[in-house]
Amino acid sequence: MKQRSAEILCIGTEILMGDIINTNAAYLAKELAGLGINVYHQSVVGDNPQRLKDSLELAFSRADIVITTGGLGPTYDDLSKETIADYFNRKLVLDAPSLHEIECHFLRLNRVMTDNNKKQAMMPEGCVIFPNRNGTAPGCAIEGRGEQQGKTAIMLPGPPREMKPMFEQSVKPFLLKDSDTRLVSHTMHFFGIGESMLETMLHDLMQESLNPTIAPYAKTGEVQLRVTAKVKRGEDAEALLQPVMEKIKEQAGEFLYGVDVGDLQTAAVRALKEKHLHVALAESCTGGYIAKRITDVSGASEVFECGICSYSNRIKHEILGVSAQTLDQYGAVSEQTAREMAAGARRISGAEIGVSVTGNAGPEPSEGKEVGLVYIGVNSDHFSKVFMLNVNRKDQDARETIRYLASSHALSLILKAVEMA
Q1: What is the per-residue pLDDT across 280-326, written as a single tens digit (0 to 9) for each?
Q2: Chain CA centroid to CA 380, Å
């Protein structure tokens, strides 16, 4: 079977103007790679019918599939469907099930549906419709006929919270419907090791492993390995995947914090739930960042007791119980203060695990402590430790990077404390 190629075409003047960051292209490129579909080009075009038509013609001159995001809204400048339908010589017709779903969406929100929302239920004739369970704009796919045989346009909504579920639930099965093979992947999540070091450790294995393949992806402070097996329908992909994943664990397992867990905060909440444990936080330089990441995870209320933002020494002393002598002798940014803050968070809340962060995120040195110096404390019956982190970044976003990395290390220590419990 011919190797398919796709082009990602994101539509929206707001992207061109820099008003929003185009995260859709990165997500789609990664997902398409996982499906074995090559992506050689990505484009962005504003809300202009002629320029969109020109971009579409260019995209189809070099790809079999063009996936668009944006331009499916109810307003006059949302012209993706109209322009793409015209390109394929298709009329727009009212799709009654889509209209019903849009009407139900407004009823659930107790809002009045305006006439222009009906525009979103007008779909290209003969298209495959993708329902939108998180918004009003359904997506669709048009498969070419005649001279356009073999060309497919897939239209998705622009908001990521609508686009991503639609791709996962509807577009993936659509793209795989005619394939006699399938791709199965697992993502292995690593923390505390850089991409280059992990790749060095696994170099021979990555070079030798052709099916499944091993692909690294670097994130801020983390590395992911996507292990992907290609099998024929009916074959057991896990029989190929698991032996390779076991070899990876043997060589780099000390840095592995989960498989297919999404991120550190999800892994931490899941681990706490499994052992029926609770965590409490005392945050200084992160200012609630750890609490925010934990509570981003559904069900966090089952394991998260409280978070105390203790920026002043008075609060560290009066609320958390850090001794005045510790603050006077060692300062707020110190191993000793972090240790007492973690113990205080645990004492106040009654949680099994207390975690603290204190440091200097910049931009200027404080108390004679350099920018990027952070102490992270954990207090529990089976695991108590203070971790020193030094990430003195010189870039423009140094403060944000320091805070994010500090929160990540704190989440990693929560996982360690749960493991030791």
Answers
A1: 999 999 999 999 999 999 999 999 999 999 999 999 999 999 999 99
A2: 30
Q: What is the CATH number of domain 5-176?
A: 3.40.980.10
Q: Are the C-beta atoms of 38 and 6 separated by less than 8 Å?
A: yes
Give Dmax (Cα) for the chain.
83
Q: Provide the 3-class DSSP secondary structure of residue 298.
A: coil
**Residues comprising the chain, all counted:** 421
Locate 163 and state its tokens: 């686009």
Q: How far from 181 is each of 45, 147, 230, 239, CA to CA, in Å?
A: 34, 27, 7, 16
Peptide bond into 160 cis (omega under 30): no
Instruction: Count the Cβ atoms, other than its own, within 10 Å of residue 252.
Output: 19
| Domain range summary for the chain, segments of one domain joined by + | 5-176, 181-259, 264-420
H/E element holding 376? Answer: strand 373-379
pLDDT tens digits, one per residue of 171-198:
998 998 877 777 788 999 999 998 899 9
91 token code pair = 């009329």
User: What stretch of H or E contains 228?
Assistant: strand 222-232
The 8-class DSSP code of residue 24 comes to: H
Q: How many CA atoms lie within 13 A of 59 on its CB side?
A: 29
Residue appearing with tokens 């995260």: 23
Q: Are 186 and 227 in contact (CB under 8 A)?
A: yes
Which residues lie closer than 8 Å to 246 by C-beta, 6 or more apart? none
The answer to whether 414 touches 268, Cβ cutoff 8 Å, is yes
Please check whether residue 102 is in contact with residue 136, taking contact to mean a CB–CB distance below 8 angstroms.
Answer: yes
Cβ neighbours of residue 96 under 8 Å, at least 6 residues apart? 121
| Residue pointed to by tokens 């063009």 | 66
Average pLDDT, the chain: 91
Of 283, 286, 352, 293, give the one whose Cα is nearest residue 315.
283
Fold of 181-259: Alpha-Beta Plaits (3.30.70)
User: What is the strand order of the sheet 256-259 is part of?
Assistant: 213-219, 222-232, 181-191, 256-259
DSSP 8-state assignment for residue 9: E
Instruction: Categorize the per-residue pLDDT at 369 as very low, low, confident or very high, splitting at 50, 70 and 90.
Output: confident
DSSP letters, 139-197, are: EEEEE--GGGTT-EEEEE-SSHHHHHHHIIIIIHHHHHTT-SEEEEEEEEEEESS-HHH
**Token pair 């940014």 in the structure block, residue:** 333
Which CATH class for the 264-420 domain?
A: alpha beta
